[in-house]
Amino acid sequence: MEIVLLLCISYVPVFQSFLGTEPLNAHDWIRLVCIPIPLILIDELRKESKNK
């Protein structure tokens, strides 16, 4: 549901004009997908070492 809301905010013209947003380009999408992966891995490693 949150993803749908974020897509509406970025791509629906009514929301764009009201909130002052614009569509994301391919470079932005790549960054949004790639940055969280190492953070999740680091957090999982931290949890694993804490449980030992």
Low-confidence parts lasting 5 or more residues at pLDDT below 50? none
Broad shape: elongated
* Distinct helical segment count: 4
User: Pairing-aware structural class of the strands and helices?
Assistant: mainly alpha
Quote the beta fraction: under 5%
Main beta sheet strand tally, sense and closure: none
Report the count of strand segments. 0
Please report the distance between the alpha carbons of the first and last residues: 36 Å
**Alpha carbon gyration radius:** 16 Å
What's the mean pLDDT score?
Answer: 90
Short synopsis of the structure:
The protein is mainly α. It is 81% helix and 0% strand.
Explained architecture:
The chain starts with a helix and ends with a helix. With about 50 residues, the chain is an all-alpha fold. Helix 1 packs across helix 2. Helices cover about 80% and strands about 0% of the residues.
Task: Give the SSE layout.
Blueprint: H1 2-11, H2 13-19, H3 26-34, H4 36-51
Helix pairs in contact: 1-2
Label this structure with key terms.
about 50 residues; mainly alpha; 4 helices
